[in-house]
Amino acid sequence: MKKLIERLLLFFAGLPLLIASVLLLPHYNYLVLHIEVLIVAVFAIIEMRDLLSKKLPVAPLWFALFTGLMLPLAAFLHAVVGLPYRIIPFALIFSCLSILSYEFFACFSGKFDRAVGRLSSSFSILLYPGYLIMYLGIMTIWPNAGAFLSVFFMIVFGTDSLAWFFGMIFGKNNRGIIPASPNKSIAGFIGGYFGAVLAAVLGFYMFNSVFCHCLTTLIFIALATATAAIIGDIFESVLKRSSGIKDSGSGIPGRGGVLDSIDSVLLAAPVFYILVDLFLGA
């Protein structure tokens, strides 16, 4: 019962607050959202480093934060400060060079047995969550970014919440199909896709001036985004099982850690970004 209440509070309070921060505070190219993304990225990087440290050697925390925040910070500088888009590929190159340079100087200690593991963990943090979360910041430069971001969050959280709800109600006899996440069920997957379609239809009517005559396309984008969100959720379950932990953290009631709460968002964001750019010309 406690977990149910926590889930419902997160959905009926957390999602509206997130959408409100996008729709009501678009000032300075969604400065508030960028600050939220950077704060979330900090905690996600810390949790990802702790998770990887269970199996791999990791670089110091300051270095993980330095390289992991480079890309979301570059998106902030591009969207809010107005620096040219090339700041983003420059930040990616600089992050990669920083990781390689760290290992170059570390080799002077004469100890090489931890280099491969440290490189793997550092590049993993750069990619997940650093690179993937960057797409939330890039979306803010779109015309009608508030509508697109609201629909994106509705799709992801609709997928996640209805997958959990359908799985809890109808999934008792069809679970266990995903070894890394045995509580996932066929009913849950059906519920997740239903939630994505429902979010697309709701978004279509809420922002009809933006998505007019695009309902079919929006539903297709929602289904693809939902698939990415589901894979992102399962991917993090694989990481946690490999590391021997249940949750990435304990800061969010009913969800675990920050990484547990954004695992679906991380993989869904670039998929949504690419499909909207291709089919809706944002």
Instruction: Extract low-pLDDT stretches.
Output: none
Question: Biggest β-sheet, characterized?
Answer: none
Termini separation comes to: 42 Å
Q: Given the helix and strand composition, which structural class is it? A: mainly alpha
By DSSP, the count of extended strands is 0
Shape: globular
Beta-strand portion reads under 5%
Write down the overall mean pLDDT. 89
Radius of gyration: 19 Å
**SS summary, helix count:** 11
Written as H for each helix and E for each strand, in order along the chain, the element string is HHHHHHHHHHH
Please tell me the total number of domains.
1
Describe this structure in words.
The chain is mainly α and about 280 residues long. The chain has one domain (about 1-280). It is about 75% helix and about 0% strand. The protein is built from 11 helices and no strands. The chain has helices at about 1-25, 25-50, 60-70, 70-80, 85-105, 115-140, 145-170, 185-205, 210, 215-245, 260-280.
Q: Any chance you could write out the topology, listing elements then pairs?
A:
Blueprint: H1 2-23, H2 27-52, H3 61-68, H4 70-81, H5 87-106, H6 115-138, H7 145-170, H8 186-206, H9 208-211, H10 215-243, H11 258-279
